[in-house]
């Protein structure tokens, strides 16, 4: 009673501890969820403000560079030295003059073209002598009176941005001054940040971008392409389908913020993609601290629980000694039971052989009667042969000797059946033809069948039925079933025994008689149970037969038929054709 009270008290405390731990876990989840939402909103707004400020700075720098270079062609078109060089066609000092301007202006390159579009002076000496007659900036500058801006695709990729203006003296057009603006320096500067930036012209084509493969495409086409492993890749993955996602997408910590601004220059626009990686890092840092705090609380709680568990383990150790002693007793009982089972197995094997010898004794009288008939016939044939020889009728005497030889063969077959039946079955299993074993069993029971005049009906399949087993033991079971069926029909006027052999998933031998049936089906296979008169049987035949069939992987069953009589069924695993052929080939070898 005291142990039960302690157990009930421990159970109540355990439930309270579980409830407290559950509440602590729920509190931790709520705190982390609330903190995550609050800090995500706050840090996201901060990131948006920084991205807007950065985008305004980028667009302002780009516009300043364009405006600074827009006035250069107008100044150079009025330079007296360049005008004089075009008039006199003396360009020996023109290239050096342009180089000095580049250092002051900061442009990418300067070129002086004559009226035929040929480069007569350039800061890049590799361009001297090249023709630009069909270039857009040359053709438009020759036609227009003002400064022309042209965006020209490069063969190596990207674009060149060029201001051009015609140089004229009086009313004559002498040539064109072209100023290339270095906007690629902004791309190189943007590539060092965590944002992805692109600039589109009035047609929507990307002319500047941190990703080179975006240039020349629309924004939708660029975002649909596969990108390298960088901040640009995250931007493209989260914003690949603008029809399905809002401009500000936040998906599983890989969201991207898209911002856009208008550049007051020829309809240009600038867009940037800013990842939330910094937001997640800052939020996760705070969440990690909170989770660590709750983990410490849980560790303290588990520490006290472990102390209680250690106390309970001390109580259980006192009981473990009794359990070990009980386990030792159980092991001794198991060992004793195993020895008894081995003894029973030996006794069962001895009883099985004894039953076979007892059945052999019962059959010896009928078999001796069967042997007396050939012996008597042999005596008659020998007397007749002697008489025929005295009368010199050798052919008829030889015929008599042939009949005597047949009788000897029959006697030998009878003795061989007795010897094989009395021999103990081998342990090795081999393919057994059930039809042949049944025929041998019926031949062995032939004297009793002829003495009783029992009608035997056999139904066999067209194909042989093979099982894996010991033929001698299978024939022993068949003989026992046939003997019981014959004995059960002693009181019948027209005794009849039906034998049916069938093959399906198992090989089934059915023995049905028209006797009175079975009274006690439950005790039928028990050792020493018999319904025969004293001296007719000891009640071991069916018990041993059931053990043989079980050893071969089958089962032996009995029931009463619908029209009366007993029905015994022996079911054994059927041997497949493949196994038959392999076994036959091995036997042939």
From TrEMBL:
It is a multi-pass membrane protein. It comes from the Bacteria. It is found in: Cell membrane. Its main location: membrane. Signal peptide: none annotated. It holds the Pfam family HATPase_c. Its EC number is 2.7.13.3. SMART domains: HATPase_c, HisKA. Residues 366-576 form the Histidine kinase domain. CDD domains: HisKA (cd00082), PDC1_HK_sensor (cd18773). The chain crosses the membrane at residues 285-305. PROSITE patterns: HIS_KIN. GO terms for molecular function: ATP binding. Gene3D superfamilies: 1.10.287.130, Histidine kinase-like ATPase, C-terminal domain, PAS domain. Residues 313-357 form a coiled coil. Keywords: ATP-binding, Cell membrane, Coiled coil, Kinase, Membrane, Nucleotide-binding, Phosphoprotein, Transferase, Transmembrane, Transmembrane helix, Two-component regulatory system. It catalyses: ATP + protein L-histidine = ADP + protein N-phospho-L-histidine. This is histidine kinase.
């Amino acid at each position: 009673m005291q142990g039960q009270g302690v157990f009930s008290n421990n159970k109540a405390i355990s439930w309270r501890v579980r409830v407290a731990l559950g509440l602590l876990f729920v509190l931790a989840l709520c705190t982390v969820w609330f903190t995550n939402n609050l800090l995500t909103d706050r840090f996201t707004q901060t990131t948006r403000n920084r991205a807007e400020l950065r985008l305004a700075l980028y667009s302002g720098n780009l516009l300043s560079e364009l405006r600074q270079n827009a006035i250069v062609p107008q100044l150079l078109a009025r330079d007296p030295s360049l005008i004089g060089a075009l008039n006199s066609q003396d360009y020996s000092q023109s290239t050096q003059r342009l180089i000095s301007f580049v250092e002051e202006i900061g442009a990418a390159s300067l070129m002086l073209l004559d009226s035929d579009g040929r480069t007569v002076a350039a800061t890049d000496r590799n361009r001297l002598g090249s023709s630009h007659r069909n270039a857009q900036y040359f053709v438009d500058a020759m036609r227009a009176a003002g400064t022309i801006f042209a965006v020209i695709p490069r063969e190596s990729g990207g674009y060149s941005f060029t201001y051009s203006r015609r140089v004229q003296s009086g009313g004559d057009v002498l040539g064109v001054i072209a100023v290339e603006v270095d906007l690629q320096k902004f791309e190189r500067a943007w590539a060092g940040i965590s944002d992805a930036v692109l600039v589109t012209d009035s047609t929507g084509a990307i002319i500047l971008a941190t990703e080179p493969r975006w240039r020349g495409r629309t924004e939708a086409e660029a975002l649909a392409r596969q990108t390298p492993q960088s901040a640009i890749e995250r931007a493209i993955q989260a914003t690949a389908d603008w029809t399905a996602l809002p401009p500000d997408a936040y998906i599983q910590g890989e969201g991207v913020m898209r911002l856009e601004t208008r550049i007051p220059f020829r309809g240009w626009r600038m867009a940037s993609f800013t990842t939330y990686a910094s937001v997640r890092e800052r939020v996760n840092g705070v969440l990690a601290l909170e989770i660590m705090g709750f983990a410490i609380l849980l560790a303290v709680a588990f520490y006290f629980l472990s102390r209680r568990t250690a106390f309970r383990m001390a109580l259980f150790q006192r009981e473990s000694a009794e359990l070990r002693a009980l386990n030792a007793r159980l092991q001794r009982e198991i060992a004793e039971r195993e020895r008894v089972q081995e003894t029973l197995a030996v006794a069962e094997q001895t009883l099985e052989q004894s039953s076979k010898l007892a059945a052999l004794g019962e059959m010896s009288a009928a078999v001796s009667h069967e042997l007396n008939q050939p012996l008597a016939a042999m005596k008659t044939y020998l007397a007749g042969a002697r008489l025929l020889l005295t009368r010199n009728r050798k052919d008829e005497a030889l015929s008599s000797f042939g009949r005597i030889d047949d009788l000897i063969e029959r006697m030998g077959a009878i003795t061989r059946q007795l010897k094989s039946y009395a021999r103990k079955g081998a342990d090795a299993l081999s393919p057994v033809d059930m039809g042949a074993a049944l025929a041998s069993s019926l031949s062995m029971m032939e004297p009793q069948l002829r003495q009783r005049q029992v009608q035997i009906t056999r139904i066999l399949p067209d194909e042989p039925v093979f099982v894996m087993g010991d033929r001698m033991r299978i024939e022993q079971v068949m003989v026992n079933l046939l003997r019981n069926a014959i004995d059960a029909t002693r009181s019948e006027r027209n005794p009849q025994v039906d034998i049916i052999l069938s093959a399906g998933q198992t090989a089934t031998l059915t023995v049905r008689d028209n006797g009175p049936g079975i009274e006690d089906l439950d005790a039928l296979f028990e050792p020493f149970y018999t319904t025969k008169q004293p001296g007719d049987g000891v009640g071991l035949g069916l018990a041993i037969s059931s053990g043989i069939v079980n050893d071969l992987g089958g089962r032996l069953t009995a029931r009463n038929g619908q029209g009366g009589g007993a029905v015994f069924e022996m079911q054994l695993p059927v041997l497949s054709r493949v196994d038959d052929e392999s076994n036959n080939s091995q036997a042939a070898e």
